[in-house]
Amino acid sequence: MVKAIRVYEHGDPEVLKWEDVEIGEPGEGEIRVRNKAIGLNFIDVYYRKGVYKPAKMPFTPGMEAVGEVVTVGPGLTGRTVGDIVAYAGGAMGSYAEEQILPANKVVPVPSSIDPVIAASIMLKGMTAQFLLRRCFKVEPGHTVLIQAAAGGVGSLLCQWANALGATVIGTVSTKEKAAQAKDDGCHHVILYKEEDFVARVNEITSGNGVDVVYDSVGKDSLQGSLACLKLRGYMVSFGQSSGTPDPVPLSALAPKSLFLTRPSLMQYTVTRDELLETAGEVFTSIASGILKVRVNHTYPLSQAAQAHTDLESRKTSGSVVLIP
Q: pTM (2 decimals)?
């Protein structure tokens, strides 16, 4: 038996129960991993609340972790006991001391990268990679708007977009987060509680608008984000921390011939090659100093409910990691 967080009903953080579970042995093509560090992400909140539906109830949340391989399934090659591996997005259930994973969904972690750092950045870093490099390819001269610029993904988007040569505009809720966003490479930071971000973006861009908006906030910001775009601009809605956005009629895109996409990491890492390439670029960017990883908060895994409470009330910034 190992300890894990279990969810029997959707609801507030109190539904996260710390329990003994039986996980069994790995089958063909699987490995058993003892987790060293577990990343906390807003998608975990969506599953807990029922915004996203798990395959079955009860379930163990969590979409990323780094751990040590303790058992290898029958006939499996390429993985050995003692390997340090990471996964993100391929299977749910990382809020556990140990878990069974498909071997083709994990990637090796370079020995130079601490497991806590790797766990804090796998999902967020691979999300930033596909958003900036493939969903909309950011290049020198582009102007980008990043909503929630001091959040886990937002922080990485700011750093990476700046390194790619873009002019970076970020929105944040507090002066403390504004300082972090500046440090992360934001050229312009907007305190959205104190000023109209649409008006400020219009001012910053001399009325031209931005090439792309990366919006993980959703309901509270989507309409404003669309208004910030230039002709043929790209609206990338990749989250909904404030709630599900209202539907956008096609006619709303017509005046500026806008593009609107709602991407997911899972559709950008379908093949093994895509997964390895995406994770590899994240690890390379950490090693080269393009990405500074802030693990500003760690919690014992048993206190996942408190971590969720703090994340939802915007008391956290940067990355949050749960330690088994």
A: 0.87
What is residue 145's predicted lDDT score, i.e. its pLDDT?
Answer: 98
pLDDT band at 241 (very low <50, low <70, confident <90, very high): confident
- Which residue shows structure tokens 């490099």? 133
**Are 204 and 228 a contacting pair, CB within 8 Å?**
no
Interatomic CA distance for residues 103 and 91, integer angstroms: 11
8 A C-beta contact, residue 242 and residue 220: yes
Nearest to 88 by CA among 63, 69, 108, 113: 63
Q: How far apart are the first and last CA of the chain?
A: 14
Would you state the pLDDT for residue 306? 97
In angstroms, the CA 65 to CA 95 distance is 8
Rounded Cα gap, residues 264 and 239, in angstroms: 9
Of the listed ranges 33-37, 73-77, 305-309, the least confidently predicted one is 73-77
Pair of tokens at residue 18: 């710390």
The Cα 118–Cα 246 span in angstroms is 35
- What is the average pLDDT across 177-181? 95
Cis ω on the peptide bond leading into residue 58 (within 30° of 0)?
A: yes
- pLDDT of residue 319 exceeding 90: no
